[in-house]
Design brief:
Order of helices and strands: HEEEEHEEHEHHHHEHEEH
CATH topology: Rossmann fold
Helix content: 25-40%
CATH architecture: 3-Layer(aba) Sandwich
Strand order of the largest sheet: 7-8-1-4-9-10
Number of strands: 10
CATH class: Alpha Beta
Radius of gyration: 17 Å
Largest sheet: 6 strands, mixed
Number of helices: 9
Distance between the termini: 14 Å
Strand content: 25-35%
């Protein structure tokens, strides 16, 4: 994968038949950033959003979580209209978001950061499951270290592990491999594959340009995709 392409990848992992976006429009001031976006995410699928920087990928993900509000359109999640729902309501329904930049708590330990992932549970677990440290061994080794002392790749694993402790139905990753070393990218890819193996796997690619989905499907020609993501 080229450097340009890796910087243009967003991944949404769906663990159920759960999400539908219908004709979503978003504006920043007078700038029309999302133009009639329609998208479905079904159980066990990995949906990759591709496009140059600035075409609206992060804005779309923030709209899914309720961090940004669309001006028109509809978002349905697990059969409920969440178009106007705040982020914490969507989180309790099963959306989990790992934002670009990770947003861990630098002064909290790794263990304390992970515990914050229990916030959406009505009855939080008493301790972090052993499976978390089996999936992310480095976090077990550094569980007493402060989050701010970790490398960028380790912080990314921490943010992903914290999101998974929410037991999400939908895991939203924004630039999960940006600025981290290849070995950690492989580790994150391994985790995503393990998650996908829990359900029926299907891969769907979407290419965005100027706030619109311009290509979709599983059999797109590489040259056509490259035209929309290369600088």
């Amino acid at each position: 994968m080229s450097k340009t392409t890796s910087r243009s990848l967003k991944c949404i992992w769906g663990a159920d038949m759960l999400l539908a976006i219908e004709q979503l429009n978003h504006y920043y001031g007078g700038s029309h950033t999302l133009r009639g976006i329609s998208l479905e995410v079904q159980r066990g699928t990995c949906t990759a959003l591709l496009g140059r920087n600035g075409v609206g990928k992060t804005t779309l993900l923030k709209c899914l979580m309720g961090v940004e509000r669309g001006r028109s359109g509809r978002i349905t999640f697990v059969g409920q209209d969440v178009t106007s729902a705040p982020p914490h309501v969507r989180a309790r329904l099963g959306m989990s978001y790992v934002p670009q930049g990770r947003d861990i708590f630098p002064r909290l330990t790794v263990e304390e950061n992970l515990i914050t992932g229990f916030a959406v549970h009505d009855r939080p677990p008493r301790e972090i499951p052993a499976a978390t440290f089996e999936m992310f061994p480095v976090l077990g080794e550094m569980r007493r270290r402060r989050g701010g002392d970790l490398s960028g790749g380790q912080q990314q694993q921490l943010a992903l592990a914290r999101a998974l402790l929410m037991e999400p139905k939908l895991l939203i990753l924004d630039e999960p491999t940006e600025g981290i070393q290849p070995s950690v990218i492989k580790d994150i890819g391994r985790v995503i594959r393990l998650l996908l193996e829990r359900g029926d796997m299907a891969i769907l690619y979407l290419v965005m340009s100027r706030g619109e989905v311009v290509m979709s499907g599983v059999d797109m020609e590489a040259d056509q995709v490259r035209r929309h993501i290369a600088v």
